Amino acid sequence: MKWCGLIIIFFLSVPLFVSCERQTELSKVTIPEEAGEEEIKEGTETAVIYTQKEEKEAYQKLVEDKVDEYHKKIDKLKAEAGEAGEEVRDEYNLNIELLQNKVNVADKKLNELKYVSGKAWEDLRSGVEAVMADFEKHYNRVTSRYK
Predict the structure, then answer these.
(1) Which residues are within 8 A (CB) of 48 and not within 5 positions of it... i.e. 6 or more apart?
(2) Which of 5, 56, 67, 97 has its CA 20 to 30 A from that of 112?
(3) Is the CB of residue 113 less than 8 Å from the CB of residue 124?
């Protein structure tokens, strides 16, 4: 009976020892015990940079798609201007030129976005968003006027 109790305790305690040993192995892989504060900081910074790079690439793709959409919208307005009466056509063309200038600025910002990183890309991002919002606002104003 005494042996049965000892055997039961042994089998119940083995998973605890294995689990503790496994946790130690995992922690050594993640953050080695000999790693200094600098190494840990460096690893964290690398992870943050990688995340920022992914975020920047996704944002860049979003902006590229938006700029392509803007070019299509301008092409559509040009087609409508060709069908409009002469007095309206001049106003159409003036607005199209203004929108084209805004898209050119967006293209320039997109090109700059490809070559910046860190804090500079975050600052540039707010400029890109302002240009895109300005285009949308003016485009909506133009399209609502001619409907």
Answers:
(1) none
(2) 97
(3) yes
Nearest CA among 104, 138, 105, 122 for reference residue 59: 122
State pTM to two decimals: 0.61
Distance CA 79, CA 146 (A): 13
Mean pLDDT of 101-125: 86
Residue 42 contacts by C-beta under 8 Å, 6 or more apart in sequence?
Answer: none
Token pair 């959409």 in the structure block, residue: 69
The answer, yes or no, to whether residue 13 has pLDDT greater than 70, is: no
CA distance 29 to 23: 10
Strands (E), 23-103: none
